Amino acid sequence: QVQLVESGGGLVQAGDSLRLSCAASGRTTMGWFRQGPGKEREFVAAISWSGANTGYADSVKGRFTISRDDVKNTLYLQMNSLKPEDTAVYYCAARRGVTLKYVSSEYDYWGQGTQVTVSS
Fold first, then answer.
1. How far lies 59's CA from each of 7, 69, 95, 110, in Å?
2. How far apart (Å, rounded) are the C-alpha atoms in residues 100 and 52?
3. Fewer CB under 10 Å: which end of the chain, C or N?
4. Phi, psi dihedrals of residue 2, rounded to the nearest 5°
């Protein structure tokens, strides 16, 4: 069982940066997803259990960076050049498998989510 607790959300202006954190109780392949108002949950970024491989949604590529600190058992999402369309609840997720996956159904454990609001 992997427990996940996100933090770092907030209200920022367009163009600002924000870093999300996710405290994890285990080491596994992990990802970030988000769900905006009236939208389905969508993939944002993923990182392999070793940290050697990452993947990003096209909408965030070049602006967001996923990373992990296995000493601290923490997953991060650095978000730069934020846009109003990035407004969503952001979820940290972990999967029992080791390969990168980009759909929510492939993930087994979920955090409670943290709200990110970007004003124009």
1. 22, 25, 23, 22
2. 11
3. N
4. -110, 130
